[in-house]
Inverse folding.
């Protein structure tokens, strides 16, 4: 997902009996669907895991601007240009809400940014794939935002108050992102033979990377079990992936496009589709920084940051001068 | 009273300014110095593209040849573009981008004010709607020019360089010809423009260049800079490569 393979304490979930009274009260509040707020006591592991998860999510929104930003200057109509601009602007806003939510846990946006730029903190694997044709704007909205919604809707009920509230604002905008993507896909799939070819090609390239967004199966993962006990992860990766495939397969049919999976088949018994796993070796390669665009994405972010230094410094210096002048006048 | 041909020409001038500047600003997407600036730049670009749809939409209607705003934006070549030379200048650095925005906004806001209440009801309506957005653009670009002009030694140097570099493109905004005079003469707006920018430049500790030299040829379409063709090559690529496609 936008936060993939986030490590928790790694110790496994403890029962209420094993906890001291403070932690027990904390866990009981979560079990009763209460919210944890910034000033409340929380276990160190909860705080650290959340910082990692929210930070990664925020970075994904920021880096996620790049593959779509790649087509803003080439959008084929004024309306498409405006819609894409609005969408990418939303993503920057999502980044902002999420950095603010993470800051309530005691990290600064600057620190998180430095960790992103140095490669220490990750962002979603999906944004390391290139956007090659205009149909990719359709595929990204339809599949990538679609997959993000699967994960983010349940996170509106997550236990950490600021995170849950950020998710509520974000989810309102995500459904528009998904719809505009589907709409582009529709125009392409029902368009000229060349457009249809681009649409199919985009689906071919984005299908498995979209499935990877949910992360490998975590049925056995102690990290996931702890995160679920803390309600900062609401569903297992396999559950969400299944839901995504079940929703998307009929949409592909409707578009007249073919999902690149020979094993994709409705399974009456389980009430869902059977489908092939993505290539997890590729996924781990991407996480290691070997995605098709991994180097470019980080290079881009670093260049923007370095070239913007003089602006940030000047704005601070000007604000300081103004403050000093105001003090002197008082 | 303007003829339809004059009206069309004038509407293309307004629409092309918004289109070309909106496009330039959108080139920043994801690369601004801070997240807040990314959002603000996208917002400005979005407003300008919206205004483009209105101005070029009306231009197409006046022309009555079955074209629409997209046809005007995506199917005309450099010779038929009517934007000011200022707005086709490349982004260069953030300082140039904001200085270009500031100089244009200071003209734009006075122009839209003058157009509000115009006899032509649709022109008046578009001006009124745009004025709300441009008032905000002008405020923001002025604040940024002040902050960066005054900020550090380096930022001051960069902003002065940007001002010096862009200054020769200011004069064209106030040149007027038959077409302008048929709808709204920009020449009388120069004083208000000067007052506005002088105040900001003073606060920004920047020196207004002495020279009155002005490049021209953008809004008449006689001679654009080399930059515009490259922008159009990118912007128009899809509709040109797939002329039968609907998007
Ligand atoms: Fe988002
Ligand atoms: Fe989104």
């Amino acid at each position: 997902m936008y936060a993939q393979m986030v490590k928790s304490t790694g110790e496994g979930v403890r029962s209420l009996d094993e906890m001291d009274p403070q932690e027990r009260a904390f866990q009981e509040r979560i079990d009763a669907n209460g919210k944890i707020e910034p000033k409340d006591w929380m276990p160190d592991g909860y705080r650290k895991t959340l910082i990692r998860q929210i930070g990664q999510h925020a970075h994904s929104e920021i880096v996620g601007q790049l593959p779509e930003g790649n087509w803003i200057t080439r959008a084929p109509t004024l309306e498409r240009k405006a819609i894409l601009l609005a969408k990418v602007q939303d993503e920057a806003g999502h980044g902002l809400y999420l950095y603010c939510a993470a800051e309530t846990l005691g990290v600064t946006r600057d620190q998180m940014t430095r960790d992103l730029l140095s490669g220490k903190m990750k962002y979603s694997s999906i944004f390391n794939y290139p956007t090659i044709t205009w149909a990719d704007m359709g595929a990204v909205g339809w599949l990538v935002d679609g997959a993000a919604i699967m994960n983010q809707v349940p996170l509106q009920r997550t236990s950490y108050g600021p995170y849950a509230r950020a998710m509520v604002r974000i989810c309102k905008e995500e459904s528009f992102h998904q719809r505009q993507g589907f709409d582009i896909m529709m125009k392409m799939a029902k368009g000229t033979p060349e457009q249809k070819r681009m649409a199919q090609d985009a689906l071919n390239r984005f299908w498995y990377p979209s499935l990877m967004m949910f992360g490998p199966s975590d049925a056995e993962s102690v990290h996931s079990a702890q995160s679920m006990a803390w309600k900062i992860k609401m569903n297992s990766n396999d559950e969400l992936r299944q839901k995504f495939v079940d929703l998307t397969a009929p949409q592909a049919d409707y578009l007249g496009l073919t999902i690149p999976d020979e094993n994709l088949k409705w399974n009456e018994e389980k009430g869902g589709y059977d489908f092939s796993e993505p290539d997890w070796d590729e996924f781990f390669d991407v996480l290691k920084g070997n995605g098709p665009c991994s180097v470019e994405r980080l290079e881009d972010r670093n260049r923007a940051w370095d070239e913007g230094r003089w602006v940030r410094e000047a704005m601070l210096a000007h604000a300081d001068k103004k403050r000093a002048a105001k003090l002197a006048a008082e | 009273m303007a003829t339809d041909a004059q009206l069309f020409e004038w509407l293309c001038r307004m629409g092309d300014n918004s289109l070309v500047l909106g496009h330039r600003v959108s080139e920043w997407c994801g690369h601004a110095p801070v997240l807040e600036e990314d959002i603000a730049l996208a917002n400005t670009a979005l407003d300008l593209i919206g205004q483009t749809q209105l101005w070029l939409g009306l231009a197409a209607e006046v022309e009555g040849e079955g074209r629409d705003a997209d046809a005007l934006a995506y199917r005309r070549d450099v010779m038929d573009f009517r934007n000011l030379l200022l707005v086709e200048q490349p982004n260069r650095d953030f300082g140039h981008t904001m200085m270009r925005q500031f100089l244009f906004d200071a003209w734009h806001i006075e122009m839209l004010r003058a157009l509000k209440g115009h006899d032509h009801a649709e022109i008046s309506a578009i001006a009124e709607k745009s004025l709300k957005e441009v008032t905000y653009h002008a405020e923001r670009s002025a604040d940024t020019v002040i902050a960066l002009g005054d900020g550090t030694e380096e930022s001051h140097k960069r902003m002065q360089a940007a001002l010096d570099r862009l200054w020769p493109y200011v004069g064209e905004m106030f040149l007027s010809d038959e077409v302008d005079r048929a709808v709204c003469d920009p020449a009388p707006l120069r004083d208000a423009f000067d007052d506005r920018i002088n105040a900001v430049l003073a606060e920004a500790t920047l020196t207004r260049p002495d020279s009155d030299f002005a490049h021209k040829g953008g809004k008449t379409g006689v001679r654009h800079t080399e930059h515009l063709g490259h922008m159009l090559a990118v912007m128009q690529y899809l509709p040109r490569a797939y002329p039968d496609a609907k998007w």
Notes: Chain A touches chain B through 49 residues (CB under 8 Å). The longest strand of chain A covers residues 265-267. The first helix of chain A runs from residue 21 to 31.
